[in-house]
Amino acid sequence: MSDQTTEAETVRAARLFDVRRVIGGLFTVYGVIVTTLGIFDSQEEIDKAAGVRINLWIGLGMLILGLLFLLWQWWRPAEPPPPSDIPPADEIRE
Amino acid sequence: MVGAAIVLTYITLGGLSSAIYNEVLQFFVIIAGLLPIAIIGLVKVGGLDGLFDAVRTTKLGEAGLHTWADTGGSDNPLGAPWWGIVFGLGFVLSFGYWTTNFAEVQRGLSARNMSAARRTPIIAAYPKLLIPFVTVIPGLVALVTVKGLGADTGDLQYNNAIPLLMREFLPNGVLGIAVTGLLASFMAGMAANVSGFNTVFTYDIWQEYIKKDRPDGYYLRIGRWITVVGVVVGIGTAFIAAGYSNIMDYIQALFSLFNAPLFGAFIIGMFWKRMTAWAGFWGLLTGTVAAFTVYAGYKWWGWFTFGSDLDESFWGAGIAFVTVAIVSVVVTLFTTRKTDEELSGLVYGIGRHDLTAGALAGDRAWYRSPILLGVGALLLAAAFYLPFL
Predict the structure, then answer these.
(1) Do B207 and B276 fall within a single domain?
(2) CB contact under 8 A, B25 and A93
(3) Residues B23 and B170 placed together within one structural domain of the fold
(4) Is the residue at B349 inside a domain?
(5) pLDDT-based confidence at residue B284 (cuts at 50, 70, 90)
């Protein structure tokens, strides 16, 4: 395996586990589910929430937040730290 | 229990980075879970004005809407006078929380360079400023809407306020998010403390004093076992916490016992280069004993009376701090200090820190200036604070 492929793999791993991607993905999924529930909320459920269509609003809010996080990580992808930035464990102790 | 098992799995396998990673994610889930309760609660009681009117009719009364009113003496719901709040809570307990609580400090230590480390606690202050919106407001709403809240046993204890509100207000959908948020907040707190506990135990106790000079793999294994112990201890403390009428009393009591003396020893050692290692040790020991005496004298032995459990914590913290200061000075006079070289970079006025160490290109941007961010957090805090004097 050449150095270039390992480097590409490092970059891909760093992006796969970018916390923005996880937050964005999770909130987009939550947002879609809760918004869908919100659209089909029964009157009984709306009354329970003091007349607020809370599923709809919170769902939309989470959807937007999730999409913003996804956009942010596409716009500014994460760079893995250069290998020299990670000192051996003995140095961390000091 | 299930939550504890999940925490155990991800810390044992992923260590500190997985704890921090999950905390970031959990933060957003917690907010998403608590926000609906605050919003519906406010709508239900007729907005802020409606809430305030309703609070005035409870036994808390007008005082429940103010932070400093009536603190000239102990005649307020907190049962604490202003000097106890300012010195005990404001100075010792709060400073101690942000500077010597290992769960916070560890986040700063893991930052990638000096600039990021200085920004860590300051940036953390911003979301912390917004937390009262999703905790204080639901608390007041629960006070005025849940009848009989404040019982000593059963479902209607203060600690159950949030779950009670969830059951009452939230329809399926956001209810699931809120339950997730509660579990997330439990796991975030547990993970933060357990990852601090296993680091300190492995590095500073086991490696320093018990088994020196073993390979890294050995210490990693020890750390993992200590993580298991930490989670078990964490579950155990939940039963102790259940003995308090609310979690806040319990947390502040713990802080006054352990954080307050630590903070005293730290801050004196940081600014006074003559202080000796033995002074730190004896100061810490006597400070903890002093705080414990105040606590036990109030709780069990009936020596002291305080306005409330929190009032005791404020006094305990203040007394611990003063004890540490006095004992440190006395012990210092009888022991030999460390040389300037040994203290370089650790004590104020000796050596210099390179504040730009490991700086990245983006760190010069104005929005990354620690001073600017700090001033911003202070102004925001004042803006939230002043309307409720």
Answers:
(1) no
(2) no
(3) yes
(4) yes
(5) confident
Q: Do B171 and A49 touch (CB under 8 A)?
A: yes
Report the candidate in B380, B379, B356, B352 with the shortest Cα–Cα distance to residue B368.
B356
Separation CA B180–CA A33 (nearest Å):
14
Task: Give contacts of B112 with chain A, Cβ < 8 Å.
Answer: 81, 85
Q: pLDDT class for A2, splitting at 50, 70, 90?
A: very low
Distance CA(B356)–CA(B105), nearest Å, equals: 19
Distance separating alpha carbons of residues B331 and B297, to the nearest angstrom: 26
Q: What ranges do the domains of chain A cover? A: 3-79
Query: Roughly how many angstroms between the first and final C-alpha of chain B, as a whole number?
Result: 41
Q: Which of residues 30-89 of A touch B (CB under 8 A)?
A: 30, 33-34, 37-38, 41, 45-46, 48-52, 54-55, 57-59, 61-62, 65, 81, 85, 89
Q: Residue B388: which residues within 8 A CB-CB, separation 6 or more? A: B65, B66, B67
- The rounded distance, in Å, linking the Cα atoms of B235 and A13 is 35
- Span A9-34, mean pLDDT? 79
Asked if A8 has any chain B CB less than 8 Å from its own CB, the reply is no
Tokens 């009364």 found at? B61
The structural domain count of chain B equals 2
Same domain, B257 and B295: yes
Distance in angstroms (rounded) separating the CA atoms of residues B183 and B179: 6
Cα separation, B220 vs B165, in Å, equals 43
Please report the beta strands in chain B, taking only residues with DSSP state E, as ranges in sequence order.
none
pLDDT of residue B153: 62
Sort residue A50 into left (φ over 0), alpha (ψ -120 to 50) or beta. Answer: left
Taking alpha carbons only, the member of B246, B311, B250, B318 closest to residue B73 is B311
Strongest mean pLDDT among A56-70, B210-224, B279-293, B317-331: A56-70
| CA torsion through residues A32, A33, A36, A41, sign | negative
CA distance A52 to chain B (A): 7
In this structure, how many other beta carbons lie within 10 angstroms of the beta carbon of residue B203? 15
B340 and B367 assigned to the same domain: no
Q: Say what the pTM is.
A: 0.71
- Domain of residue B325 covers 245-358
- Interface mutation vs chain A, best among B26, B28, B168, most A CBs within 10 Å: B28
Helix (H) or strand (E) holding B196: helix B174-199
Instruction: Indicate yes or no: CB of B40 within 8 angstroms of CB of A27.
Output: no
Same domain, B132 and B262: no
